[in-house]
Amino acid sequence: MNLAYFLEVARAGSVTEAARVLNVAPSAVSRQIAELEAGIGVPLFARQPRGMILTGAGSRDRRSAVRPAATRHDPHRRGLPGSAFRCSPGSHAA
Q: Quick one: average pLDDT of 65-88?
């Protein structure tokens, strides 16, 4: 799963807007989000008539997904326990 899709939908609040920014089809974004949610077993977004809103799990995972970039110079940080997004030693979020 391209983490950029999750982060862009979270930022934009819309699959359509995220797809426009990422220059991909909305169906590709929807498919990636659905695969991510199925893989971790929890919904990350609440689907609304006018967009998508992060659930509590989505908010936690968004924070842990962006945290590695903020702490990339600290080799002891590997993500948050219980998070769907983890960094292994020597890897960094793009």
A: 44
Confidence of residue 63 (pLDDT cuts 50, 70, 90): low
Q: Please state, in angstroms and as integers, the Cα–Cα distance from residue 19 to each residue in 23, 34, 43, 66, following that order.
A: 6, 15, 20, 20
pTM over 0.70: no
**CA-to-CA dists, residue 61 to 1, 14, 72, angstroms:** 14, 18, 17
